[in-house]
Amino acid sequence: MFFDCLKLIFCLILSCPICGEGYITNSVGGNTDGNLTRGRNAEIKGNAIKIDGDHEDVGFYFTKTDTNESVKISGEYIVVNEPSRLIILVPDTLEPGEYEVSVTTQYGYGGKLLRNPRSAILPILVLIS
């Protein structure tokens, strides 16, 4: 059982490079509580979150919590794409509401592309207004 717990912790650390409240910032007012404004920038900080790779699933997603509908934003909405920081333009076409934010990438530590994409979900829900 002890080793099962260690294995689970290890998997959680590897599979969640976006961690903790305060890792998404709204450019309007600089708040870090998950409230984002349509048509304005948001900054996401994490580890190895650069959106890179040629797999069709690679991208930045908003998933509406009440309908489970995912919206993959196009590259033109990604303003800064760095290993530890993304700045995106929140699409003004998103309906107001609560969303889960996720990043899917093949970018690996050290800049090497992974064979298979991996996804990370921001551990707080965001509210789009």
List keywords for this structure.
129 residues; 6-stranded mixed sheet; 11% helix; single chain; 10 strands; mainly beta; 4-stranded antiparallel sheet; 1 helix; disordered N terminus
- The overall average pLDDT, rounded, is 85
Which band does the percent of strand residues land in? 35-45%
Order of helices and strands: HEEEEEEEEEE
How many beta strands in the DSSP annotation?
A: 10
Number of helical elements: 1
State the helicity in percent bands.
10-25%
What distance separates the N and C termini? 45 Å
Q: Over all CA atoms, what is the radius of gyration?
A: 15 Å
Structural class computed from helices and strand pairing? mainly beta
Q: Tell me about the biggest sheet?
A: 6 strands, mixed
Low-confidence stretches: 1-15
Shape: globular
Task: Please write out the topology.
Elements: H1 2-15, E1 24-26, E2 35-36, E3 41-45, E4 59-64, E5 70-73, E6 78-82, E7 85-89, E8 97-107, E9 113-121, E10 126-128
Parallel strand pairs: 2-10
Antiparallel strand pairs: 1-3, 3-7, 4-5, 4-8, 6-7, 8-9, 8-10
Description:
The chain is mainly beta and 129 residues long. Helix content is 11%, strand content 41%. The protein is built from one helix and ten strands, in the order αββββββββββ. The strands form two sheets. Strands 2, 4, 5, 8, 9 and 10 form a six-stranded mixed β-sheet that branches. Strands 1-3-7-6 form a four-stranded antiparallel β-sheet, with no helix packed on it. Strand 6 and strand 7 form a beta hairpin. The chain is globular and about 35 Å long. The N and C termini lie far apart (45 Å). The relative contact order is 0.25. The N terminus is likely disordered.
